[in-house]
C-alpha cells in the first residue's frame, strides 16, 4: 500500500493536443504510475475536474485505488426544505484496476461543488495478491454503489432525514437499521422519529455525522485526523457501531503524542478502557516526571473536571 499526495493549481493546468484541446493536469506518482485530471470550463475562470485517469506501466496485478480530493477555495452547501449549511467539500473515490489493464478512468464531476481552479488531496494504491482478489473487487463495487445513495441526486430515494444544525441530510431507514441497533430500535417501534421521518441530532457537528454516514453506507473512511476521530468515536459509541468504534480506537492508539495524550486518556475513560490504558502507558514511558504536564492548561482542566483521572495517571507514573 502506497499513499501519494497531489496539489494542482491553475498554473499546472494546460491544453492537451492529444485530447482535442481539453484542459488537463498530470502528475507522475512513481516510475510505474501517473495520474491525469481532465477539466471542464475556461482557463482563467472557473474550471471543474471532470474525470481522473490512472495510468501504469506494469499491468500484472489487481490494484485498488481510493482517495480524497479537495477543490481549492470551495464552498459546498446542502439544501433541503429551505435550509442550508456550509459543508466541507470533497471528492471521494474508491475503485479498482483489473490485471492486464494499464489505465482506469473515474468520473469525479460534481455539479454541486462551486470552486476556483485547483485540486489537492491524496490517493492510496494497494496491490492485491491473487488470493481474495475477486472478493475484494466485489466489495469495492458494492461500497461504490452504496456511496451513490448519499449523493444529492439520489435524495428522492430517502425515507428519513437526519436534522443536524441547519442541515437536513437524506438517509434510508433500512440501511441505518441494518448497521446500528440504536437506529433499528428507533424505526421498528412507534417512536416520534419513525412517524415523522426525521431524526434530530443535536450533539455532534455536521462533518462528524457525514463521516459516520459514509462509514455506515460504505464501510470506508478517509482523510481522518485526531480531532475528527475523537468526535467520531463518540458517534460510534452512541449508535453502537462496534467496528467503527474499534477503527477509531486503533487510529488514536497509533497517534498518541505529548500534545494529545491527556485528551486521549479522557476519551478512553468515556469510551474504551483499552485506549485509556494505552495512553497512560505512553505517559509512563515518555514522561519520567509529571511536571511535563503540570503547567499545561490541559492538565489543569483535567485536574479540575476529572480529578479521578489525574489520580490514575499519577499512580501509574509513580509505579512505573
TrEMBL record:
Domain of life: Eukaryota
Residue ranges constituting the BTB domain according to the UniProt record: 158-222
CDD domains: BTB_POZ_ZBTB_KLHL-like
Transmembrane segments: none
PROSITE patterns xrefs: BTB
PANTHER family named among the record's database cross-references: SPECKLE-TYPE POZ PROTEIN
Protein name: BTB domain-containing protein
Amino acid at each position: 500500500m502506497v499513499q501519494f499526495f497531489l496539489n494542482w493549481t491553475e498554473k499546472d493546468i494546460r491544453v492537451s493536443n492529444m485530447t482535442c484541446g481539453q484542459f488537463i493536469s498530470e502528475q507522475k506518482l512513481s516510475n510505474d504510475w501517473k495520474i491525469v485530471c481532465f477539466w471542464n470550463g475556461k482557463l482563467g475562470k472557473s474550471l471543474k475536474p471532470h474525470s481522473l485517469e490512472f495510468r501504469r506501466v506494469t499491468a500484472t496485478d489487481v490494484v485498488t485505488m481510493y482517495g480524497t480530493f479537495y477543490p481549492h477555495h470551495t464552498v459546498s452547501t446542502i439544501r433541503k426544505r429551505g435550509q442550508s449549511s456550509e459543508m466541507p467539500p470533497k471528492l471521494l473515490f474508491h475503485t479498482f484496476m483489473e490485471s492486464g489493464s494499464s489505465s482506469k478512468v473515474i468520473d469525479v464531476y460534481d455539479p454541486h461543488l462551486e470552486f476556483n481552479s485547483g485540486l489537492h488531496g491524496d490517493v492510496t494504491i494497494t496491490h492485491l495478491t491473487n488470493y481474495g482478489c475477486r472478493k475484494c473487487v466485489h466489495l469495492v463495487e458494492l461500497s461504490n454503489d452504496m456511496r451513490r445513495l448519499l449523493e444529492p441526486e439520489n435524495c428522492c430515494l430517502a425515507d428519513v432525514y437526519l436534522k443536524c444544525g441547519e442541515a437536513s441530510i437524506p438517509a434510508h431507514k433500512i440501511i441505518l437499521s441494518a448497521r446500528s441497533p440504536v437506529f433499528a430500535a428507533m424505526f421498528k417501534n412507534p417512536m416520534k422519529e419513525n412517524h415523522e421521518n426525521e431524526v434530530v441530532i443535536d450533539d455532534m457537528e455536521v462533518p462528524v455525522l457525514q463521516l459516520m454516514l459514509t462509514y455506515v453506507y460504505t464501510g470506508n473512511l478517509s482523510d481522518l485526523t485526531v480531532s475528527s476521530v475523537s468526535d467520531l468515536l463518540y458517534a460510534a459509541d452512541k449508535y453502537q457501531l462496534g467496528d467503527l468504534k474499534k477503527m477509531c480506537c486503533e487510529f488514536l492508539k497509533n497517534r498518541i503524542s505529548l500534545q494529545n495524550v491527556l485528551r486521549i486518556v479522557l476519551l478512553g475513560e468515556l469510551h474504551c478502557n483499552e485506549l485509556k490504558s494505552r495512553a497512560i502507558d505512553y505517559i509512563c514511558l515518555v514522561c519520567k516526571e509529571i511536571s511535563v504536564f503540570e503547567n499545561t492548561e490541559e492538565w489543569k482542566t483535567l485536574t479540575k473536571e476529572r480529578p479521578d483521572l489525574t489520580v490514575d495517571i499519577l499512580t501509574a507514573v509513580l509505579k512505573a
